[in-house]
Design brief:
The chain is mainly β and 167 residues long. Helix content is 13%, strand content 41%. A hairpin with a 2-residue loop joins strand 9 and strand 10.
Length: 167
């Protein structure tokens, strides 16, 4: 038996819109880069998706108000690290403010020095190909130049909470 739904218009609450978007299960990724000054930056996103297989393109988005926006716009390369089920701590670490995000991690170095996080389901090393403004976010399209993956369960986010795949 299906449950009834409540309808809203675009003029309704942003909170309700966010709740409706939360009904779509997503993976969690951490996007990382190294600035020209050598600083490591990284942030948690759930806006990652594929765009094209030929050429290999992926997409993710970042709030225009992000303090990291200028670095990501200027960067030639970044890495997208798709988190595994056991990496909720990394998701929270890179979503928080003020914490030394890379401290204690055994990092691999990707293209342009972008840090590659250990233990991820997949890692994509991307050339910063195109950017488009979309509302209050910037949409980044990356051309994948290298990638790796391993057979592992992904970290899932649904309805405002971390989840795991069921058999």
């Amino acid at each position: 038996m299906s449950q009834s739904s409540i309808s809203f218009t675009a003029a309704d609450s942003g909170r309700e819109f966010r709740s409706a978007l939360g009904r779509y299960a997503t993976g969690i990724a951490v996007v990382t880069l190294r600035t020209p000054a050598g600083e490591l930056l990284g942030l948690t996103v759930n806006s990652f998706n594929s765009v094209s297989l030929a050429p290999p393109l992926v997409v993710w988005s970042l709030s225009s108000a992000s303090s990291s926006m200028a670095a990501f716009e200027a960067s030639e390369y970044y890495a997208i690290n798709v988190l595994a089920a056991g990496q909720q701590d990394l998701s929270q670490r890179f979503a928080s403010r003020g914490e030394e995000r890379f401290g204690g991690l055994a990092l691999d170095e990707g293209l342009g020095g972008a840090p590659l996080l250990p233990g991820c389901c997949a890692r994509f090393e991307c050339r910063n190909a195109t950017r488009h403004t979309g509302g209050d976010h910037v949409v980044f399209i990356g051309e994948v130049e290298r990638f790796d993956y391993r057979e592992d369960e992904p970290l899932i986010y649904f309805g405002g909470a971390y989840r795991r795949l069921a058999a």
